[in-house]
Amino acid sequence: MTRLAEGLPGSPASILGIGAYRGSQVVPNADLVEAIDSSDEWIQQRSGIRERRFATPEETVQLMSVRACQEALDNAGIDARQVDAVIVATISHLMQLPAVAPAVATELGCDQPVAFDVSAACAGFCHGVTLAADMIRGGSATYALVVGVERLTDMLDLEDRGTAFIFADGAGAVVIGPTETSGIGPVVWGSDGEHFDYIRQREDWPDVLAAEQPGGHFITMQGSAVFRWASFSMAKVGLEALDRSGISVDDLDCFVPHQANMRITDAMARAMKLPASVKIARDVAEQGNTSAASVPLALHRMVADGDAVSGDLALLIAFGAGLAYAAQVVVIP
Ligand SMILES: CC(C)(COP(=O)(O)OP(=O)(O)OC[C@H]1O[C@@H](n2cnc3c(N)ncnc32)[C@H](O)[C@@H]1OP(=O)(O)O)[C@@H](O)C(=O)NCCC(=O)NCCS
C-alpha cells in the first residue's frame, strides 16, 4: 500500500480507514466578537479561523466518537466485532469515572475489547496512534480504533478574549490494523512539565466544586507563550520524525499539523523548509481548534478534498497542554 517498497521502519501496522464527525452548529466569528470586544478581521488575521463547529446538547463526546468510529470502520471494511482495542483521546469527557471508551466500544458493537481514555490534550490522538500501532506490533491487539474527540464548548468561557474564538467540537477516528508493510513510522514524542500552566483548567476540581461561581473548569491559556513554544520547538520535532522514518521533506506529500492556529502552521512549514509541493492541512479555518480531534479531522478533510490520496506520505504532528507533543509519518490508506 505504500510507495516505499519496504514500507516505513518498524513492524507492520497501518491506518486502514478514517472517519469524522463535526459539531453541527456552524458559528462564524461574527457571532462571538461582541462578547470579547474583537472583530472578524482580528480573529482571521491572528488565527486564520473564519468559523468553527460547536456541538448541540445532543452531540455528546460519546455520540461524536461513535459516529466518527463507524465511518472509519466502514472505510476500512472492518466489522466492529473484529476490533479488540478502543482508545479515546480526550480532555473534555466531563466525567472523572469511568472512561468513555468502554461505552463507545459497546455502542459500536465491539466484543469486550480493551478500551481506555488517553489524556494528552491536543497531542492525544498522535499518542493513541502510537499506542495502537505498538499494541498491534507487540501482539496485544489486532484491530484498534483510535478516536480524538472534544466538546470544548463545555469548557469554554465565551467572554475570554484569549480562548473564546479558538476552541470547538468534533471527533476524528482511524482504524489501525496489521498490513504487509509498515504504514506508521517511529514516533517522536515527549513532554515539558515545566510549562504545565501554559494551557490548563482554571482551577483544580476541589476549588471548582467549592466555588460559589461556576466556571473554574474553563480553559485558560497563555496564548503568546504557547504560540512561541509551538512555532519554534515543534518544527524540530517534525523534522526528527521524518528522519526517523528515513525520509526527507522532499519525499513528503502532506503535512497535517495540529490545527491550533494558521500562523503556527505557517511558521512550522517555513522552519521545516517544506517544498511547495507538500499539501498543508488548513482545517482550522472552518473547524476551529478541536484539541485531540484536530489532526484526524484535518486528515479526513484532506482525503475528502482529494488533497491526500492513497499511498501518500503524511507527517502528523500534535502539541498542546502538558506541554505534550507527538509526531509520526503515516501512509494514507
Ligand atoms: C491567542 C492568540 C491568537 C493571541 O494573539 P497574540 O498576537 O499572541 O495576542 P496578544 O495576547 O499578544 O495580544 C495582542 C493585542 O491584541 C489584543 N487582543 C487579545 N485578544 C484579542 C481578541 N480576541 N480580539 C481583539 N484583540 C485582542 C490584546 O489586547 C493586545 O492588544 P495591545 O497590543 O493593544 O496590548 C495567539 O497568542 C495564539 O494563537 N496563541 C496560540 C494559541 C493556540 O494555538 N493554542 C492552542 C495550542 S494547543
Averaged pLDDT: 96
Question: How can the largest sheet be summarized?
Answer: 5 strands, mixed
Strand content: 15-25%
The hetero molecules present are: coenzyme A
Question: What's the short story on this structure?
Answer:
The chain has helices spanning 40-47, 61-76, 101-108, 124-138, 205-210, 223-244, 262-271, 284-287, 294-304; strands at residues 14-22, 25-28, 51-54, 85-89, 114-118, 144-151, 169-177, 188-191, 199-201, 219-221, 254-257, 279-280, 313-320, 324-331.
Give a verbal description of the structure.
By secondary structure, the chain is an alpha/beta fold. The protein folds into 2 domains: 14-177, 3-Layer(aba) Sandwich (Peroxisomal Thiolase, Chain A, domain 1), CATH 3.40.47.10; 188-331, Peroxisomal Thiolase, Chain A, domain 1 (3-Layer(aba) Sandwich). It contains 9 helices and 14 strands. The chain has helices spanning 40-47, 61-76, 101-108, 124-138, 205-210, 223-244, 262-271, 284-287, 294-304, and strands spanning 14-22, 25-28, 51-54, 85-89, 114-118, 144-151, 169-177, 188-191, 199-201, 219-221, 254-257, 279-280, 313-320, 324-331. The longest helix is centred in the last third of the chain and has 22 residues, at 223-244. The structure holds coenzyme A. Coenzyme A is lined by residues 36, 38, 42, 46-47, 122, 161-162, 165-166, 221, 223-224, 226-227, 260-261, 264, 289, 320.
